[in-house]
Protein: SAM-dependent methyltransferase
Organism: Nonomuraea insulae
Amino acid sequence: MERDLISHVAHGDHPIAAPISGDNLDRLLTRAKLPPRARILDLGCGEGQWLLRALALYPDATADGVDLSESGLSAAAEEAGRLGVSDRLRLHRVPAADHTAAEPYDLVLSVGATHAFGGLEPTLRAVHDHVRPSSGLALVGEAFWEQPPSPELLTEFGAEPGEYADLAGTVERMEAAGFATVYGHTSPLTDWDEYEWSWTGTLTRWALDHPGPDGDAALAAAREHRDLWLNGYRGFLGFVTLLLRPLTR
């Protein structure tokens, strides 16, 4: 069973695809205070939940979503049609690092998608290139270590020692890329648990309803993920989403 399909199924009951509740997502987008006719970009949009909520909050805004997931973009297009915002949403199936645009954006998002660029620093450089100078904003979500991880946890998680910093270090990394922090949200453990129980539980239910090779693969993936979470990074790995404004170039 392809990884893309596993992720699509697992996020069925938590399409935000990050350890953030819907209320906290809306609070972050509202705090952006976007101008009339804002242009919004999501680099690594997945199923487009952040963009769809942004278009609901800002009725005259337009948005571009960039992702490689065919199933994710299809789901985003379908939901945009259901919500009546298809005319304000453009979806692009290209690598996030390859997206180009004739104009800068008032808000650029990249939440939990730094892997698409090879890490936080190259993600921030790409985001900075797309943000409207001086007045634009970025919304970037990244993992950090709540507690120092053991070598065993790093190995199990597949992370390099310096891949994630602590919370202070993560803020410093983002600001070192040419941004000032104007707001932020640190996901509480309740948001993490809701996300992880949804991911593993939704995938498990799907697996039990689809006996056979795909169901077996999905069930194995759910159990492996749950074990890594409950016996590994729960309470160690945090997630912060920062609202950033570019410094004068």
In short: The longest helix spans residues 189-209. Strands lie at 39-43, 62-66, 89-92, 107-111, 137-145, 179-186, 237-246. The longest strand covers residues 237-246. The chain has one domain: 20-188+235-246.
